[in-house]
Structures are given as structure tokens and as C-alpha cells.
Structure to design on (259 residues):
């Protein structure tokens, strides 16, 4: 029922873009093993994983989420805000183009997939260091025929909107309010706040009823468990050093969409 597109870790990962975290040495061999375990976890949670080969010239290319957006009936080639990342998407777009009609964000718009949180027919777009108003406006035009409502949400002190908020259950969000300029767009949802000691802890992958989550945020994990949310954990420490998170490492699409 689910397909996940992933890409192996680039040997150049240590040269990744960093915006809000300091540069620390990255063990690329360990990052590869962690990424392989992440892909196996996706399989165990019911995904068919399409794993694309590493791109030596693109340090951040493991973070496939940023180069495209996938909805049930359409896919969109994003235009990443970091120039170093603009060539990463070609093979991903080719795969998506075989599964969905493929539309595109064009210059001067910039849009990273990490800035796009889709909940039902509501699409929240981070206005961030990477995604601009032109990108958001184009997305609204592209998705209007499919019945989606697109709304901008300003972020601060974090890379992407999904650094600050993700969905962890029907109508339930995991949130770091400190990184949202205004949380009013999310007022209708039940919110679980990250533990104050774990500011990067709001990023979780939701696959149907399952949640895939880093093992590095035990206090927030306890909050999820206390709310009855079942979580599978993975170690992604080396990818976190590259300012990546669990959603960044896959593009998820529902297969066999009929309506
Ligand atoms: N290193 C992740 C990014 O900056 O896009």
C-alpha cells in the first residue's frame, strides 16, 4: 500500500549544507549503515522501498524528501532553496513521473519538500530559509485543481517546517512551538509538545498507523508513548549531524490510489 523512495548516502555527505546546526565530524560508513537500517524499518512498516544509488557529487542527496512532493494524484518537482541541491532530483522525478502526473516549481520560486506538511487536503508550507513566497504561491496554483488548500507558515531557528511540526496520528501533531512564528494555523489539531531538552524532536515519519522516529529523543518518545502512540525507533545520529531528520530520508507515496 505504501512505496518509499530513498537514496543511498553520498560519499560526500560530510560536505553537506548546514544552516542551524554546527559542523561536526560525520562517520559516513556509519551513516550508510544507519540509512540501510532505516530502509529496512520502512519495509517492516509495510513499504516497498525503491532505493536509488548514491550521488557522489551531491552531499545532501540522501535527503530525497526535499526534491519532490507527492500527493495521491499528482507529484511536483520541487526547487530546493540551496543551489548546491538543485541537481539532485532528476532520477527521483523520473521515478515519480512514472507513477503520477509530474508538475514543477519554477524560478524564482524555491521550495524544499521538508517545508511541506500535508494533512488531508490541507497543505502547510514553511516560509523558511529555503522556501519562499513565490514557491508557496506556485504550489497553491498547481494543487488547486486537485482540491488542496495551501497555507504559508513562517518558521524560525530551524531548517524546515517539518523540523518544527509533523503529524503523528489522525488530528495529532508533534510540535516544537519555539520554531513556529505563529502556531495559529494548527489550532484545530491536538498537539503534543516536544520535551524542552529536545528541540529537534518534532520530526516523525507517519506511515498509516505507524510512526518511525529517532531513538535520540527519549523524553519526547515517552510523551508519545504516554499518549498511546506506538513508535518504531531508528538510530540516525550521523544523518542528524548533516541536519537531516527521519522524514528527510524518504518520499512516501500511497500506491493503488483509486479515488
Ligand atoms: N543538510 C541538509 C540541508 O541543508 O539541506
Amino acid at each position: 500500500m505504501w512505496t518509499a523512495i530513498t537514496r543511498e548516502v553520498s560519499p560526500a555527505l560530510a560536505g553537506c549544507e548546514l544552516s542551524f546546526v554546527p559542523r561536526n565530524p560525520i562517520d559516513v560508513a556509519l551513516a550508510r549503515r544507519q540509512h540501510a537500517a532505516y530502509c529496512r524499518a520502512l519495509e517492516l512498516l509495510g513499504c516497498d522501498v525503491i532505493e536509488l544509488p548514491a550521488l557522489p557529487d551531491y552531499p545532501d542527496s540522501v535527503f530525497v524528501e526535499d526534491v519532490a512532493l507527492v500527493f495521491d494524484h499528482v507529484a511536483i518537482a520541487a526547487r530546493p532553496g540551496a543551489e548546491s541541491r538543485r541537481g539532485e532530483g532528476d532520477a527521483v522525478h523520473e521515478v515519480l513521473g512514472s507513477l503520477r502526473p509530474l508538475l514543477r516549481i519554477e524560478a524564482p520560486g524555491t521550495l524544499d519538500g521538508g517545508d511541506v506538511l500535508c494533512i488531508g487536503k490541507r497543505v502547510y508550507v514553511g516560509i523558511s530559509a529555503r522556501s519562499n513566497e513565490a514557491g508557496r504561491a506556485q504550489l497553491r496554483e498547481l494543487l488547486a485543481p486537485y482540491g488542496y488548500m495551501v497555507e504559508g507558515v513562517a518558521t524560525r531557528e530551524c531548517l524546515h517546517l517539518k523540523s518544527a511540526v509533523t503529524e503523528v496520528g489522525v488530528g495529532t501533531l508533534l510540535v516544537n512551538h519555539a520554531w513556529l512564528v505563529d502556531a495559529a494555523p494548527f489550532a484545530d489539531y491536538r498537539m503534543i509538545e516536544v520535551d524542552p531538552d529536545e528541540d529537534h524532536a518534532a520530526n516523525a515519519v507517519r506511515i498509516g498507523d505507524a510512526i518511525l522516529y529517532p531513538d535520540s529523543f527519549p523524553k519526547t518518545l515517552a510523551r508519545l508513548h504516554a499518549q498511546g502512540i506506538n513508535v518504531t525507533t531508528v538510530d540516525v545520529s550521523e544523518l542528524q549531524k548533516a541536519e537531516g531528520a527521519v522524514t528527510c530520508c524518504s518520499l512516501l507515496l500511497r500506491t493503488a490510489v483509486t479515488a
